[in-house]
Write a structure and sequence with these properties.
It contains no helices and five strands. By secondary structure, it is an all-beta fold. The chain has a five-stranded antiparallel sheet with strand order 3-2-1-4-5, with no helix packed on it. The relative contact order is 0.21.
């Protein structure tokens, strides 16, 4: 079976970060670690370990600052991560 090439979406969108290995940062069934790059109200631009960036809802875990590490699921931050995690 020949697979079709994946469509690359906006590079600043988590939709572009879908992966068969790690899941999708927006709609995957797993939580993903990210680092906060910039905070904008109730959203933050975050970067995953692969360098993909996208907006994440942070209202459930505020306050959040640039450099914080978060655990996200379905495009929403669900927990802060400590340095040892």
């Amino acid at each position: 079976m020949k697979s079709e090439p994946l469509e690359v979406l906006d590079k600043d969108s988590y939709a572009a970060a879908c992966s068969l290995v790690d899941g999708c940062l927006t709609c995957g069934d797993v939580a993903v670690e990210v680092e906060v790059v910039e905070v904008d109200g109730f959203d933050a631009v975050c970067e995953d370990p692969h360098g993909q960036r996208g907006k994440v809802g942070i209202d459930l875990v505020m306050p959040v600052d640039a450099g914080d590490r978060l655990l996200i699921h379905a495009g929403v931050a669900i927990s802060h991560l400590k340095e040892s995690e």
